[in-house]
UniProtKB/TrEMBL annotation, chains A, B, C, D, E, F:
Annotated signal peptide: none
The protein's name: Putative tautomerase K2
Similarity field: Belongs to the 4-oxalocrotonate tautomerase family.
All residue ranges annotated as the 4-oxalocrotonate tautomerase-like domain in the record: 2-65
Isomerase found in the keyword field: yes
Keyword Isomerase: yes
Enzyme Commission number, as recorded: 5.3.2.-
Pfam families (UniProt xref): Tautomerase (PF01361)
Entry-linked InterPro entries: 4-OT-like_dom, Tautomerase/MIF_sf
GO MF, one example: isomerase activity
């Protein structure tokens, strides 16, 4: 009876895609449902998985929208991070 | 002060529609808010209802995206399900 | 296949209770599931309802924890609210 | 490590916009992340903020979709509200 | 950067436990994080998993609290379910 | 009308506390509500903030429950992280 909500940024894993593909979604659904079957013995039919894709502008990390945070994080630093 | 989040698949209840209609949303909002008024005496003005429509590909059931799960479930079976 | 998450404050509707009773929860579950059956034709067996009770201190309204907001709102005012 | 989910209606704060602007989202992300840094000492890098914009039709208040609720609320009343 | 929220009923997988064990939670966290690493190439350090255990009374299925739904579902039936 | 859900680990900011204090919750509620007032002009009375405290065992980061992830992260490393 588990309910799994997965929030990910709307972007592709390869340059040809700008969002999660249907095939990747199917693999996430299968993978996560199987984890709950193996660990908690939840039958596959009783697990719901909902994938929510979030625009990069709507996701904040480090106090910044993700695109800006990534730009900043990829810059060379003179001292080690964290 | 209740907050109600409702996730449903983005699809129609009749062949003419491919999503939940505005009229259906209004009826869901009215119905759910009234349940909370009747059972918990929450005034209508203090209840928020948010309906989230989820693409069929983004919803998993039975370890599969819903479209595949439904195809499988509707196939004749030689023995009773579950 | 709908998923309904309901957040309510953890408090009773009568002086004898300090939380939502099991009977009230059962009525909420029945009521909300029926709304989705009637409006969207979702079979009862495919609807999940999760009720989350939230301590009053953890719920904010009007920029204040709910207990303080209520105290303030119930005070007589010389001019109309909002 | 906090996770902040913010649901707002998809609408603009000025007549020129019909949704939250990227600049407003950036200010919300910065503001909320800073609150968690100041109050709970959570480093900015460990806070995720997700903004979810919800169509007006999908948001219920007062037992009505928001557009209808607002129309009703803005009508003159002969007696005080609430 | 994925955020995974997992809602499960608060109950054990074996008679000795009445909730999910710490070891089971650790396996769920590892399993789900690895699915996102494998499918979407998300580094483990950027995935948050939150497990929410929900009391059986607070979970509705089939229009009933789960304990009642299970009792009903396990009763012999003269015709196939669903 | 914004709804803000904040998930944080259940732990204190000082050695004397093992959870978020009522005073800290009040400051979070005030701070976040004010951000939405300033940026989106949402009146304080129309913003709901819900704080959910999550046990450390129920929160996963880096593929591990948070307590284990922190132990690992605080160990000296011979090479820079990430």
């Amino acid at each position: 009876m588990p309910i799994v909500n997965i929030q990910v940024t709307r972007e592709g894993t390869t340059p040809e895609h700008n969002s999660v593909t249907a095939e990747e979604k199917a693999r996430i659904i299968a993978g996560v449902s199987n984890v709950l079957l193996e660990v908690l013995k939840k039958p596959l039919e009783s697990t719901f998985v909902v994938i929510e894709e979030v625009d990069l502008d709507n996701w904040g990390w480090g106090g910044l929208p993700v695109p800006e945070f990534r730009k900043l994080s990829s810059q060379p630093k003179s001292e080690p991070a964290r």
